[in-house]
Amino acid sequence: MTQEPSATIVIAIEIGEAALADRLAAILAGVPGLRLAAPGEPADAALVAGRERTLDPEVALTPRELDVLALLAEGASNKAIARTLAISVHTVKFHVASLFDKLDAEGRTEAVTQAARLGAIKF
Question: Given this model, what pLDDT does residue 101 score?
Answer without folding.
Answer: 93
